[in-house]
């Protein structure tokens, strides 16, 4: 536990792994969560998109996104809800980055690994290069 300022209201509180806001703001968030959850539990609302959920519940989008990212709202049950990829902003339903960004990062890492291997190989090969000194200087006045 560590003492921190609540990002919502600024009050001091003990931050834990499960609680990232003060007790007062936590209770307010729970009330907002219940409002969103009750709305989405209704069969007719399960296909609602983010804008519809915001309009019908009065809960702001960043708060709903927080619930989604924390896994409190299971996105698989609500196909039209998602949150932005942290790299490109494309809507996703799981993880922190989209498949496209994940593949791009993997390609970049593979390229980096190949370059590291090539550099190490060139360095290893240069260790076996020998220079022979004939004892004569290349300068004309020192012969």
Walkthrough of the structure:
The chain is mainly α and 143 residues long. Helix content is 45%, strand content 8%. It has four helices and four strands. The chain has helices spanning 23-41, 50-57, 61-69, 99-126, and strands at residues 2-5, 12-15, 83-84, 91-92. The strands form two sheets. The protein has a two-stranded antiparallel sheet with strand order 1-2. A hairpin with a 6-residue loop joins strand 3 (83-84) and strand 4. The chain is elongated and about 90 Å long. The termini are far apart. The mean pLDDT is 87.
Features:
mainly alpha, 143 residues, two-stranded antiparallel sheet, 4 helices
Mean pLDDT: 87
Measured as a percent range, the helix fraction is: 40-55%
- What's the count of strands? 4
What portion of residues belong to β-strands?
A: 5-15%
Query: Could you say which structural class the secondary elements and strand pairing correspond to?
Result: mainly alpha
Q: Major sheet: size, sense and barrel closure?
A: 2 strands, antiparallel
- Strands of the widest sheet, in order across it, are 1-2
Radius of gyration: 29 Å
Distance between the termini: 77 Å
Describe the global form: elongated
Number of alpha- plus pi-helical segments: 4
> pLDDT below 50 for ≥5 consecutive residues: which ranges?
none
> What is the ordering of alpha helices and beta strands?
EEHHHEEH
